[in-house]
Write a structure and sequence with these properties.
Order of helices and strands: HHHHHHHHHHEEEEHHEEHHH
Largest sheet: 6 strands, mixed
Helix content: 40-55%
Amino acid sequence: MFFQSGFSNAIDLLDDSDEEKSSKQDFILACVLVSEYLNEKKERPAFYLRKRIEWEKHIEELSVEGPEAFQKLYRMEYVTFMKLCDIIRPKIIVNDEMARVRTGREAITVEIMLHCLLRWLSGGSYLDIRLSAGISPAKFYSCVYKCVDAILGSEDLAYKFPSTEKELDEAAQGFESLSTQAAIKGCVACLDGYLLQIKVPSRSETGNVKSYFSGHYQTYGINIQAACDYKCRFVYAAVAAPGGANDIAAFKKTQISQMIQKLPPRRYVIGDNAYVCSETLLTPFSGNEKKDPAKDAFNFYLSQLRIRIEQTFGLMTGKWRILRQPLQMKLKNASRVFMCITRLHNFIINEGNISINNSEDCESELVLLNNDESGIVGSSVLRNMIMQDLVNRGLERPAFG
């Protein structure tokens, strides 16, 4: 071997003192070792460059298919997509210089990043999406969560619970327009719980895995508390509690519980029987009370507005099909993804890219946390006043043949 023969021959040539000979031996040994390493070191494999999607060409191909091709693929029109890109672009830092050094190509554009997010949220597999985009699996998730964080951090996409007099009046008038003969006046939002289905969380993510299991639905999930306006837009949404918690317990942990209590007189939110009826949170009459014609009529007209929150969840899950099965991601990421979806949901409605009254856009099978017909004890003077007003106006539950 070169190391043995070369080193021995080099030693024989030394004709110095013992100290000098030892120093030269160390130097020669180091040179030999470096030489051996360089000779045996394998070359680094070439970096694999995937063929990245050509965005402009991709858009041209979609336009040839028809005006609805882009919207079906990305759940929004092209103009809306580009507007969203402009909103999140400042929050997504892309280093073009480092990208060229690493791959010899330009950095991944915001359009391609958003392409990955929207196709994934629409129910696509990351395996197919990342291949079509021409990026690695690791880069795919990096792009997805960059967009998620940018959407969550954008003030333009934030939603707000009505608080000012103008906002409350506008919200109340909107719901009143949905009520037959303006039977229910003063509602500013509808409240409900939603079970966000997730995979079984690991013990490293939570100290109580069982708390996320919903016995009623026999699945793991997160209790979401949300409220909507008359246009089926979220005005509030929060990751409230593990899926095993009931609505009233989760509701008490959220900020909206305090917001509702601070509503001015004759302004209120509508909920179902999972919540406690009060002057600012009206719920239907339950149990034997429902047999009273006047109270039954109140329940009917209240349900005309309360259904708006169910429509909101239905429209959301109909568009973003990733919600139709348990989210296969870390617990903390599941919350981020859901909150991102609520903002995208509002953005699409504001841009006119979704029909609120289109049944095809509404998912019928919802996992809601509100099917307790027994009701929770509570009373409200305002509820009784509204009921009496319906009686005075002769408004009853319509008789459907």
